[in-house]
Amino acid sequence: MSSANAREYSGNRSVARKLALQALYRWQLNACPWQDLVQEFGDAEDMPRADREYFRALVEDVWHSREGLDAKLALLGDRAPEFLDPIEHAVLLMGLFELSSRPEVPYRVAINEAVSLAKRFGATDGHKFVNAVLDRAARELRPDEH
Hints:
This protein is an all-alpha fold and about 150 residues long. The chain has 7 helices and no strands. It has helices spanning about 5-30, 35-40, 50-65, 65-75, 85-100, 105-120, 125-140.
């Protein structure tokens, strides 16, 4: 893959993560099946620039594995997942999912993308919490990479 194609690919994935964050945030406020989220956000303004398949996979897989991800988050963080800000919670679910289930995504990419989303959409210092939790997760889940 050329460097231009790699940048476009990673840019498409970044947009997919942003849209998945929005969908997972919406789901926390108003629970629904993952298919509804994919359909609702399928016509989003940014979707033409997104990796649509990666967006769908993130939403579907996080939705299906949310209980296990929340159990892991409870062990990694200093507060129970139900007490997290919905943005940070959604970012952590996606980041933890990528660290645990997407070995093709380098751990630094998973953490950097999550921190960027938390900075952009989360509370003032929420990105620091996201970084700390996902760094702990990476040390545990990807010891050979870390």
